[in-house]
Design brief:
The chain is globular. The relative contact order is 0.16. Helix 1 runs parallel beside helix 8, helix 3 runs antiparallel to helix 4 and helix 4 packs across helix 7. It is of the alpha/beta class. 30% of the residues lie in helices and 23% in strands.
């Protein structure tokens, strides 16, 4: 019976990063992944010989000295990544309703301020105040800055709410929406999402923004090599269904095929509610389990991966965020009649052609309840099944509505589509 120092459930960025750090420190690591591909939302998938990202459409903080650069350098993969820096004069563009203008986020705080002041010359003080606040809030989080600290440093900023703070520094409604435009990155909800969530996300992208050339799965591949080169084990198609305690300590995890993996320490890098469902323990209090089970999940997404006709749309080192109303918070709170109320559009960076795009991804929010009638159906790479004709029609109609919305700002977009593939909340589940 082999006993590992650490058994990690899940091979997403969290699980693989933990595994690499521990392996570097001499621990014998075992990572268990239920799917046939490692990486979680780092995974890529190929359609019509085109690479698509599952979740990492761009990334921030990757320039020398910045947080993610330092982390990836420590993990031993920074110099192995294929990257393309996004447009420094405007990497994220915000578009609203019938306003023909696109408002740009530029890289670097000086550039960010300069770019927005060009559009809002009377709001320079508000823009500078906003940037100072973002940096101040980020400075309160020790781990974000890779330094030693404690919880009490950030207490003073935890209760600040994003929408109300932005409204407190400017009365200009358009600027308010522009500053809140990236809420689509973190499922931001008005009067609910804390400002620290907004600040931690936005700060990284303002510092620097990059795309992964040929997909973000390269992160997972390189981390896997780091773990294996240090004697670690990564096993795919191992679906853990039990975390078993004996005499007050977790002793092993068991897969759906009855295999047992023993360890001295265990890390679960999957959904906390799923972890609780798997864990057979008398130590975890019932009240704790109940509290976790009652926590609401954030909204999900409807995503269309689009294969483009050759040499039809030029590649851009930019992202676009569109809102049908003059309200950057409207995409989460939609009604079935008005869906979709906005979208994010990302170009895929490929190594074969820097002039023309071969693919784009367009996504918008969708509630799980919108697809709940098919909740008992399952279609995965390992277990392929059809969810039925009604579901296929639902996806087709949703994609066409999204295309019509994109067409308003990008005329000719629809006729540039060669093929497309739809992801719904069921896929993400």
């Amino acid at each position: 019976m082999e006993v590992f120092d650490v058994v990690i459930i899940g091979s997403g960025l969290g699980g693989l990063s933990c595994g690499t750090m521990l392996a570097k420190e001499g621990y014998k690591v075992c990572v268990l992944e239920r799917n046939k591909q490692i990486g979680g939302t780092l995974q890529t998938y190929v359609r019509d010989r085109i690479i698509f990202d599952s979740g990492v459409h761009y990334v921030g903080g990757l320039s020398p000295g910045q947080t993610l650069h330092q982390i990836f350098k420590y993990l031993g993969i920074m110099d192995k990544l294929k990257l393309r820096k996004m447009a420094e004069d405007g990497f994220d563009g915000m578009m609203f309703g019938d306003d023909p203008k696109t408002y740009w986020y530029a890289q670097g705080y000086d550039n960010f301020i300069k770019k927005l002041v060009e559009d809002f010359p009377e709001e320079e003080n508000a823009i500078r105040t906003y940037c100072d606040k973002v940096k101040e809030v980020c400075s309160k989080f020790p781990l974000y800055n890779l330094r030693v600290g404690d919880y009490f440093e950030k207490i003073s900023v935890l209760e600040i709410e994003t929408k109300s703070y932005i409204e407190s520094i400017t009365s200009n409604k358009t600027l308010r929406n522009v500053l809140a435009g990236t809420s689509i990155l973190y499922a931001g909800e008005p009067d609910k999402t804390p400002f620290y969530v907004h600040a931690l996300v936005v700060n990284s992208y303002i510092e620097s923004s990059y795309r992964f050339v040929d997909g973000g799965s390269q992160i997972a591949r390189h981390l896997t090599k780091e773990i294996r080169n240090r004697g670690g084990v990564i096993l795919k198609r191992r679906s853990v269904n039990r975390i078993v305690e004996e005499a007050g300590e977790i002793k092993y995890v068991e897969t759906d095929t009855g295999e047992k993996y023993f360890g001295k320490m265990f890390i679960s890098s999957i959904h906390p509610q799923k972890t609780m469902e798997m864990t057979q323990s008398t130590v975890i209090k019932k009240a704790y389990r109940s509290r976790l089970q009652m926590m609401e999940n954030s909204v999900s997404i409807f995503c269309v991966s689009i294969v483009l006709k050759q040499n039809k749309i030029r590649y851009e080192d930019r992202n676009y965020y569109y809102f049908t109303e003059n309200d950057a918070w409207s995409t989460v709170k939609y009604t079935p009649e008005k869906w979709p109320t906005g979208y994010a559009l990302y170009f895929s960076a490929n190594s074969k052609d820097e002039e023309y795009a071969d693919a784009v991804t367009v996504l918008t929010y969708m509630k799980y309840s919108d697809v709940e009638k098919w909740a008992d159906t399952f279609n995965t790479v390992l277990h392929e099944n059809s969810r039925g004709e009604e579901y296929d029609t639902f996806k087709k109609e949703g994609a066409e509505k999204l295309f019509a919305l994109v067409e308003k700002r990008f005329p000719g977009f629809t006729e540039s589509i060669e093929n497309y593939y739809v992801t719904t909340p069921l896929t993400l589940r």
